[in-house]
Amino acid sequence: MLSRKGDSVPTSANEEFGAYLAHLRRRAGKSQRRLAEILCDLSGCPTVTRHEISRYERGRRTPRYWLPYLARALDVSLEELERRANIAFGAQQPHPHPHANSFVHGLSEIDASVPQSGGATGRRIGPETVADLWARIHRLRLADDVLAGGDLIGPALRELDAAVAMHRAGDFSEQVGRTLLAAIGELAQVVGWIASDAGLDRRAEEIYQLGIGAARETGDRTSAANLVGSLAYHRTNVGALEAGLDLAIAALEEAGRHAPPRAEALFWDRVAWAYAKTDQASLAIRALGRASEALSRHGGQDDPPYLYWVDESELRIMEARVHVELRRPLRAVPVLTEVLGRYDDTHARELALYLSWLAVALTDANEPEEAARTARRMLELSADMPSERTVRRSQTVLTRLRPFRDVGEVRDLIDDYGCRV
After folding, report:
1. Domain co-membership, 100 together with 214
2. Per-residue model confidence as pLDDT tens digits over 389-404
């Protein structure tokens, strides 16, 4: 069924809210660009874009942070906007993605037979049930390689809720219970990462804390350290820089002296990033060196499955990111250019993020034309991507390019994606 002018009838809560938002904007006589400009003025944030308003109106993203400013700009009560936005946690629906079916297939819904709260008795949980949970965790981790947080947050949270309910109310042996608790710790790391990418910052922290407790209870120091380091990375990236640095160092201490080499390399990489974000260049470079040294000790031994992606290429990527953050573009550009050649659109989020760092490095290298071309590719690639990480990086890229707005390519980019020229 089609509405007027051939537009599709909204099919989700987000799309219904988007249509309502578009109605309010038209009623107020404002264009998408003008509404973006007003939000910039009201919030003091210079990076709200016409493109972002379009996302909201198409139901691709729910503007949680911007609701108070939208209420003022569109002359509607905040309570009404919140009610219509249906922003209560759990109401979100995953966004469609061309690769979703192949990767999300097999991620189970909550088993209706699993109680949702603790009790004296429950169903018998055997090793096969926990082994199946581990397999689903692995599928979820692989899905995160190609899908954004908004695509995965629904099934991911259902998996975590089901696993926690199973532990609280299930009937199992001590050994099975310990394995189940270890699985919950690893699942919390994956779901915390997904929640962070979906923009659910507070929920992500709660999930990481849950995982830390589970891992510590099993005595797995490496898993606990990985969760502490994940929380550190999350806090660093949302602006809690000192807290992020403290936690990144704490993760190394938690792991102890006998962590697997790839785990130690990962933990040092997170320390390097935290130092870079706090403008401690020499310490950041030293931490990168420690990460490389740790990885060199990896002799092909079996490691925890969650370390499968930690290799020399990943360390080079983090090294380039650190140099971008420290405004050393000549060291970053060659690495990022080489890395980008290995990614295609099936890994759209990673590709968009790497493009964003390259665009910033090119800006620092006083190459605004090439930076604008790179930024445009990044913004086009991430246009409908439900990833808060790419949104934040888009804002960073536009902010860094703004001083070059007299350059034609930059001016055109800001005209298309920025809230004002």
Report:
1. yes
2. 999 999 999 999 999 9
CA distance 79 to 35: 20
Assigned domain for 249 exists: no
Q: Is residue 243 part of a domain?
A: no
Of 229, 162, 152, nearest to 191 by C-alpha is 152
- Cα 362 to Cα 396: distance, rounded to the nearest angstrom: 13
102 in the same domain as 76: no
Q: Do the Cβ atoms of 385 and 348 come closer than 8 Å?
A: yes
| CA–CA distance, 320 with 314 (Å, rounded to integer) | 10
Residue where the block lists tokens 């665009």: 359
CA 292 to mean position of chain CA atoms: 25
Burial of 336 (C-beta count, 10 Å sphere; 0-12/13-18/19+): buried
Coil/strand/helix, residue 94: coil
Please give the structure tokens belonging to residue 7.
Answer: 């537009």
Range of the domain at 336: 331-417
Of 61-70, 92-101, 202-211, 327-336, which range is least confident? 92-101
pLDDT band at 105 (very low <50, low <70, confident <90, very high): very low
By C-alpha distance, which of 10, 151, 21 is closest to 82? 21
Q: Do 73 and 117 belong to one domain?
A: no
Residue 195 counted as domain residue? yes
The one-letter code for the residue type at 195 is: A
Contact assessment for residue 268 and residue 288, using Cβ atoms and an 8 Å cutoff: yes
Q: For the chain, give the mean pLDDT.
A: 84
Q: Give the global pTM.
A: 0.74
3 state DSSP class of 358 = helix
Domain membership flag for residue 282: no
Backbone angles phi, psi at 397, to 5 degrees: -60, -45
Assigned token pair, 223 = 């898993």
Answer yes or no: do 112 and 23 share one domain: no
Integer-rounded Cα radius of gyration of the chain: 23
Same structural domain, 23 and 108: no
Domain-terminating residue out of 85, 118, 141:
85
Q: How many domains does the chain have?
A: 3
Domain stops at, among 51, 85, 119: 85
Tell me the mean pLDDT in the region 88-109.
36
CB 264 within 8 A of CB 294: yes
- Cα separation, 348 vs 356, in Å, equals 12
